[in-house]
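Final report, Chapter 2: Outcomes

The project's central promise was a pipeline that accepts a single protein chain and returns its three-dimensional structure in a standardized token representation, suitable for archiving and comparison. That pipeline is now operational. To close this chapter, we reproduce one record exactly as it appears in the project archive, with the input sequence first and the structure output second.
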Amino acid sequence: MAFDGNFVHALTDELSILEKGKINKIQQMDDTSLILKIRSQRANHNLLISAHPMYARFHLTHQKYEFPFDPPMFLRVARKHIEGGIIKSIRQIGNDRRVEFHIQSRNEIGDDVGRILILEIMGRHSNIIITDEQYNILEGIKHLTPNNNARTIMPGFAYKAPPTAEKLNPRTEEIEKLPSRIDFNSGKVSRQILAAVEGFSPLFVREIEYNAGHFNIRNIVPAVRETLAKAGEIRPSLYEGGGSETFYHTPLGHLGEPSETFGTLSELADHYYHNRYQTALIKQKANDYLNVISREYERTERKIEKLKGDLGEAAEKDVHQKYGELLTAYMHQVQPHQDSVTVLDYYTGGEATIPLDPDISPSDNAQKYYSRYNKLKKRESEAAKQLDQARMDMEYFSNLLHQMEEITTEEEVGEIRDELYEQGIIKARKNRGKKKKNRHIQLHQFRTTNGLDVLVGKNNKQNDYLTSRKAQNNHLWFHTKDIPGSHVVLTHPPGQIEEQDILEAAMLASYFSKAKESESVPVDFTEIRHVHKISGAKPGFVTYTDQQTVFVTPEKKKVDSMAVK
């Protein structure tokens, strides 16, 4: 991406339509992001301002976001000082990724006062700060305490700009000093430009170098000016390729023709950031549950190793039984206080030396061996049962870990959470019952090339619902062979299904499994009538018969094309 100083410059110009607009409402999406609802030029606008450590930005948005019920402290201060205010101006500071929204507001007694909303886009150090006209801090969305930081962001302190190296503003005559800042003999000129010029990104410097051909003392400033002039053509551009995306406010010659262009910079930023932000938010919400599942997986792994050790020890039980029987048979040969006795082993025909406790009688020694045999026999039986259960638990937690990787919606987080409560893995909170009853399970829909519908469950809740309730007996059911993955159902009678439909449904099953990065993945399929839930088993566990197996390779583009929007 390239939300650099140049992009901020163009976006600030675009958002001039908000000047003289009234801030009717402010809402806070999370710990770092706000939505300002603004009425300007006879239209309503939603301005998103974020200090997210990965997705700090500002732009108009048409997306829907959830807001916490209880307003955080920063939101209360923002509502107090700038809600109802008029945006007088939106200013970029130099060519940096710092923007000031100057707002005319009113205080508690109705007097006009000036307020400044400052956005600093600085990666994980990004911040949103509200000050008065004299730049005295009223509140910051992130606090920086005294003594522990280079500056203080706390109510009552004077606002100071972030401590950064002095750089040249490329939009002023300062840029003429650039050659004196560059050591052309040391190489890495692009990196030196980044260190010397304000608001440039590596992407933009590559464009300057593309236009210059090769940097030297004579062409470096003209190349900067020429590239900035070309960048004055605002055509919001998205570039896709190589498994990644990048964007800019104008087409870039070194990247060729854009994959897609947008009507406004806000539309471009909204498109680029929304899904990434939502995914990051969902992963953050799911992280606590992921940690719980990982902990249970590791605990079960250790339990399996311990049970295997118990079974190894129990394997000695037959030796104890034999020693007890031999001692009973040859009791007359044992003398008091012996620490061992050698007798004929009638099982093998050879001799057997039996260790003895010299402080107890031969009869008690024999009973000691029998007792040890019975304990080991019982331990072996119990350990075998526990080992079978632990292996099933291991498979269950392995499935859950895979399902956590596939989470894309908050509803899926809720479904995983409900399952963990139901299984007693985490403690249920009070008053959760009503919410759980109202949760609607949403399956994922796809369509084959021939127009047949395919449903996919991405977690145990969805899998159980799809296989046990939604699907009909003559529908085809798919699952990767011996590999954790989703239940997939081709929701049509066999007479309507062609080989191509089977292969595409199997490909979906392989894609939504742990084998999604593999080739030639084995996928079993059978009619739903042959799929049975295991009594007393964990959610998502089934057995099936009468299956056939096909081998398919997952294809993301094909999956995307089959998705029903």
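Archive annotation: DSSP finds 14 helices and 22 strands in the chain.
This record, like all others produced under the grant, will remain available to the consortium after the project formally closes.
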